[in-house]
Amino acid sequence: MNRYLTHLRHVDLAVPDYDKQLEFYSGIWGLTPVAAEAGLSFLAAEGSPEQYVIRLRKAEEKRLDLVSYGAADPGDVDALAEQLLADGVQLITRPGAVTTPGGGYGFRFFDIDGRTIEVSSDVEARQHRRIEEKESIPVRLSHVVLNTPDLDRTRAWYEKHLGFRLSDTLSSPHMGEVMHFMRISTQHHSMALAKGPHTSLHHVSFELRGLDEYMYGTGRLLRAGTTKIWGPGRHLAGHNTFSYFLDPHGNTVEYTTELEQLDEDSWHPHVYDFSQPEVTDQWGTANPMSELVAKESFNDPDRGSFLAPPV
């Protein structure tokens, strides 16, 4: 199994209500605008060495533009590209210079559901800082969750082609398996795959400094009238806290902290029954998992499948 991927870099969103989205992410959500051009903005997390963790692009249709992962060096980028080509994966670009902030060396390709994935190395590190006590802004991007109509097929594709490993699974007696938590490091998951009616973004998650900061941030969003979907609570799989909100265009975004770090040599994946309330929320403080929560998490069908973003 290849292990070319090192970490999650950024998630790029296309949005019709660009100004409102930019105001949300750079304002109450707590990201820092670092670069912009006409209809394109790059936002960083203050505690992260990544040049940016969210990119917003003005577009007529809402879509997930791409998900970007890091690789250790150009050799790994080239090796992955050659392997994907040999396996018949459709490349959008060949490895070469990356022109977004921080530069680097990378390429793009479609996953099995038609999402654009980018892998890059040698991106210049951003000057970042230690997040202080009670400072309730994102430290870094934590993970991304993607909806797929064929859960096992998509899981197998990510395992075979990108070296993801299964950490845990959520299941229920009535629905069967509904979510796979996938890792590329000792972090419990950098990505999860959720069973959905269509290909779409489930949610994007941001790590806060600690429990206090996570609660301060959750409270700030609630007081500002941001639409809360679910939380605050603590999941069993991954052991992380959760507060899910909607951004202005209906994408689900999460504040989290204390995501589990695994010993990969001894770890064995669990199958958790999410119909048990303590599985979805160990604390019992969150509103119950409901059809409304699930419906918002399904999001709108993604208009970007097998259609590469223009930038």
UniProtKB/TrEMBL annotation:
Taxonomic classification: Bacteria, Bacillati, Actinomycetota, Actinomycetes, Catenulisporales
InterPro entries per the UniProt record, alphabetical: Glyas_Bleomycin-R_OHBP_Dase, Glyas_Fos-R_dOase_dom, GlyoxalaseI/FosfomycinResist, VOC_core
One Pfam family it belongs to: Glyoxalase
The protein's name: VOC family protein
Domain VOC: 7-122, 140-258
CDD domains: BphC5-RrK37_N_like
Superkingdom classification of source: Bacteria
